[in-house]
Design a protein that fits this description.
Elements lengths: L14 H4 L4 H6 E10 L2 E6 L2 E5 L3 H4 L10 E5 L5 E4 L5 E5 L7 E6 L3 E7 L6 H14 L2 E7 L7 H9 L7 E3 L5 H4 L11 E5 L6 H9 L1 H5 L2 E5 L5 E5 L2 E3 L5 E3 L13 H7 L1 H7 L16 H7 L5 H45 L3
Parallel strand pairs: 8-9, 8-11, 9-10, 11-15
Antiparallel strand pairs: 1-2, 1-4, 2-3, 4-5, 6-7, 12-13, 14-15
The protein binds guanosine-5'-triphosphate and zinc ion.
Keywords: Cytoplasm, GTP-binding, Hydrolase, Metal-binding, Nucleotide-binding, Ribosome biogenesis, RNA-binding, rRNA-binding, Zinc
InterPro entries: G_CP_dom, P-loop_NTPase, Ribosome_biogen_GTPase_RsgA, RsgA_GTPase_dom
Protein name: Small ribosomal subunit biogenesis GTPase RsgA
Length: 352
């Protein structure tokens, strides 16, 4: 099989990553991009081609934290990660379970395509949720409305989507048609990294396959030696598109839940915030409070009741997520303090 190699630039390398490394780092290793995260290690792609690397022990704890799209420095002589570079952006997921832990899903994305369709699945509240998520991750959102070929009133859906957040591009496409999907090209420049989010059935796989092109799909599962020399079939989770961009498609990407914070919500709900600034009381809950300008705006039709309800809901979730994050950090601090104490006690016992 012919091995495809990519230059650092084609892989999405930027000056910001180089600035994090010392001369010693560059002498000790080479940069590589994580294309999949496995229990046994990481699948990476570098100017040397595809490879498998392991994380050294101090970084293993971070394993769950390393995400597809991350940049790592791999040591020259052993296939081991020397360090993980700081990300330009990070999509995180709040786990569905009781403890609502944050998991890293995709790193260093440039664009998040927020997908919905021009039919009954069109859901502005869900779009707002994903817009907030994109801003929280530090990624530029673009709204893509699929099924423009079969949907009625496409222009109406586009207009509604355009009103959700100022300045966010909205593109209506037929995901089954190459010419139509080519509208996404402005965001698929060489070295850019993108991902698609949206509910089941809106056309994420169809769009992904279109932009990847057939050749790349055939090579998406490649047999290779893993770090222990076993043959494995690695399901890649980052694919080059026909135009030289990268698409990250992981199972986690498909089930994202909001992990956003208040500032991002305020950016998406600028109109609500503007009305709120006119409420009589600064700590107005916009819920039956006297002199509430937000509720007045809903009453006289200046603000959509649906939008306010969604704002309240997302705000509750954001506050809960913040609370969980604080608790996680507190637990982490307590653990760190305990570990230090144990080490000190050990040193004292050994008389050092
Ligand atoms: N006519 C038409 N059909 C589309 C379009 N986009 C997607 N479809 C069809 O809709 C169905 C669902 O599309 P998928 O790409 O599998 O949707 P998905 O978002 O990946 O769904 P999950 O994998 O469940 O998350 C498929 O039968 C597609 O062929 C479109 O723009 N026009
Ligand atoms: Zn109010």
């Amino acid at each position: 099989m012919a091995f495809q190699t990519f230059s650092l630039h084609q892989l999405g390398w930027r000056a910001e990553y180089a600035q994090q490394l010392t001369l010693a780092d560059f002498e000790a290793g080479y940069p590589a991009r994580v294309t999949a995260v496995h229990r046994s290690g990481l699948a990476v792609l570098s100017s040397r081609g595809h490879g498998s690397v392991v994380l050294p022990h101090p970084l293993v704890d971070m394993h769950a934290g390393v995400a597809v799209g991350d940049w790592v420095l791999v040591e020259h002589d052993v296939e081991r990660v020397r360090c993980v570079l700081d990300r330009q952006s990070l999509v995180e997921r709040v786990a569905a379970g009781g403890d609502r832990q944050r998991q890293s899903i995709a790193a260093n994305l440039d664009v998040l395509f927020v997908v919905s369709s021009c039919n009954d699945d069109f859901n502005p509240s869900r779009l707002e949720r994903y817009l907030t998520l994109a801003l929280d991750a530090g990624v530029t959102p673009v709204i893509v409305l699929t099924k423009a070929d079969i949907g009625d009133g496409v222009a109406g859906y586009v207009a509604e989507a355009e009103q959700l957040m100022f300045g966010v591009p909205v593109v209506a496409v037929n995901a089954l048609d190459d010419a139509s999907v080519s509208q996404l090209e402005p965001w698929l420049a060489p070295g850019k990294t993108v991902a698609f989010v949206g509910s089941s059935g809106v056309g994420k796989s169809t769009l992904t396959n279109r932009v990847i092109g057939e050749a790349a799909q055939l090579t998406s599962g490649i047999r290779e030696d893993d770090a222990r020399g076993r043959h494995t079939t690695t399901a890649r989770e980052m694919f080059p598109t026909a135009s030289g961009a990268w698409v990250i498609d992981t199972p986690g990407m498909r089930e994202l839940r909001l992990a956003a914070a208040e500032p991002e919500l305020d950016a998406v709900f600028e109109d609500v915030v503007a009305f709120a600034s006119q409420c009589r009381f600064r700590d107005c809950h916009h819920d039956g409070d006297a002199g509430c300008a937000v509720e007045a705006a809903v009453a006289d039709g200046a603000l959509d009741a649906r939008r306010l309800a969604n704002y309240r809901k997302l705000l509750r979730e954001a506050l809960r997520a913040q609370q969980t994050l604080r608790e996680q950090r507190e637990r982490g601090r307590q653990f760190g303090a305990m570990a230090k104490q144990v080490m000190r006690a050990k040193r004292e016992r050994l008389g050092r």
